[in-house]
Amino acid sequence: MAVEQPAAGNALNTPDHSIMHRVVATDASAAVKSLTVESDSSKRLGDGVTNYLELSSTGDAVFVGSAGMAYASIYVKATAATVSVDSDNPDTLVTQWGNNGESNNATADQANDKITITKKGRYLIMGSFSVSLNGGATVTLRIEGYLNGNIQAAIHSHITVSSTDINSISISGIINVGTVPWDLDIRANINSATARDLTVEDANLSIVQIGG
Question: What is the DSSP letter of 181?
């Protein structure tokens, strides 16, 4: 895409040229142009062709290609795998993840049961889980988010589970990531010293950067 450049001698305050002189002059031989302004006054940050942020003259922001804030997800569908949980051990890592979802500027790593955050900022964490326990007494099941091995008070939830019923539990919260890389994983426990098999049949864990 050809990018118009201001001509020598054109004043920035000349009305007839006011739109096009919002263009930042660039080296025509450069492989990537960092800022362009189209004739309709929309601005493009990025390469301007494949991966860029477009800011329209009406204030809309649109990401194109691989441009965008950091995000990532891991998920599993219809698994029968289990992990043993009880109250006598530290929270047990949820390991049933089966797939990496979409990601950008973060690493979806289902093989290691985590998402690695690589950019500092505030993140919205969202998780949903369909779970069941093997037969036994009614217990409280807790699902909690950990960052680099540290429990996060803003990312946790609990439900009462009885028998082998399939239950739904979700977590959400905003965290401030001030050091990178940070690994996010999900762990579980129950309020019983008698170990139970936890099946996470369907689950999704997602992060989305929402600010700096």
Answer: S
Query: What pLDDT shows up at residue 54?
Result: 82
Domain coordinates in residue numbering, the chain: 15-64, 71-211
Residue 16: DSSP 8-state: G
pTM of the model: 0.76
Q: Which residue has the tokens 């399939």?
A: 166
Domain 71-211 class in CATH: mainly beta
Q: What is the C-alpha radius of gyration for the chain, rounded to an integer number of angstroms?
A: 24
User: What are the helix (H) ranges across 58-204?
Assistant: none
State how far the Cα of 123 lies from the Cα of 210, in Å rounded to an integer.
Answer: 6
43 pLDDT band, cuts 50/70/90, is: confident
- Amino acid identity at 188: A
Q: Average the pLDDT over 50-77 and give the result.
A: 86
**Residues 126 and 71: beta-carbon distance below 8 Å:** no
